[in-house]
Amino acid sequence: MVTYALSNDGLPICDAHGRNLITVGRAIYDIGGHRIWHFNAQGELLLGGEHDAAGAAIRQPPLVARLQFLMSISGARPFATAGGAIRLAMTPARASCDPIDYTTKTGSSLCDRATKSLFTDNKDAFDLKSDGLMNFLDAINRRGRECGWEIFTINNTAGDAKNLLTECGDLTVQNVVDHATLVLQAAPITRSAQEEGQLFVLDVYISCSCRDLCC
Predict the structure, then answer these.
(1) Where are the alpha helices (DSSP H) in 1-124?
(2) Is the separation of the CB atoms in 162 and 156 below 8 Å?
(3) Over the range 82-114, which residues count as b (16 or more CB within 10 Å of their CB) and which as e?
(4) Each residue's pLDDT expressed in tens, for the chain with a length of 215 residues
(5) 159 to each of 92, 163, 170, 179, 211, how far by Cα in Å?
(6) Integer CA distances (angstroms), 52 to 6, 7, 38, 196, in order
(7) Which of 20, 22, 157, 205 has the fewest C-beta atoms under 10 angstroms from its C-beta?
(8) Which pLDDT does position 205 carry in this prediction?
(9) How many helices (H) and strands (E) does the chain have?
(10) Strands 22-24 and 27-29
């Protein structure tokens, strides 16, 4: 079976000319049929094929270029809006503001990543105590940047836009409930509604924490 060669991180491995390498069986070859022999502990290509100078490091394309290649060969774009040129972004979820098509493999992966627990160890989970609130909000903020969430701007009672994570003292529980209700009732489903759903699934502490930090 012939497939594109991928690193342990799932990214394409390229030769010195920026061309994607392939695997045949368990061996990796360049486009000229030369077997590639040398890799580091992460599975990244270090040296060229049999005709390359010994010890010559092969520089890999930027991360964005390799992600672009993966999206171009996937056969199904992760976002519901059809066609168009590939849009570059700092993270895959930021490549588009369109609703995500969860029937695609990439779309499903985006959801899985967004809803993965914030905590690698359950003992570090937010316990609703005030001394852990800032760390909890920082963790959500990092996940939000990674996943391209744009759902934290909420109007307060006076109609002023406030950020739930940094200006929670200016918002009431009802402000948050009204915002979420409006977003989730939108038809057809919007990207914001999907992000609200991801945030809800993210961690069992989320709904309780919103009530705690807004009071």
Answers:
(1) 63-73, 105-114
(2) yes
(3) eeeeeeeeeebbbbbebbbbeebebbeebbeeb
(4) 667 777 767 777 777 667 777 777 767 777 777 777 655 545 555 555 545 555 555 667 778 777 777 766 665 555 655 555 556 676 777 777 888 888 888 888 888 888 888 877 767 777 777 777 888 888 888 888 888 888 899 999 999 999 988 898 899 999 998 998 888 888 888 889 898 888 887 754 444 444 444 44
(5) 33, 13, 11, 12, 20
(6) 21, 21, 12, 52
(7) 157
(8) 43
(9) 6, 6
(10) antiparallel
Omega within 30 of 0 (cis) for the link into 188: yes
Residues sharing a CB contact under 8 Å with residue 186, sequence separation 6 or more, in sequence order: 192, 193
Q: What three-state secondary structure class fits 130? A: helix
Residue 73 in tokens:
């060969």
Q: Phi first, then psi: give them for residue 46, nearest 5 degrees.
A: -105, -45
In this structure, which amino acid lies at residue 172? Answer: T
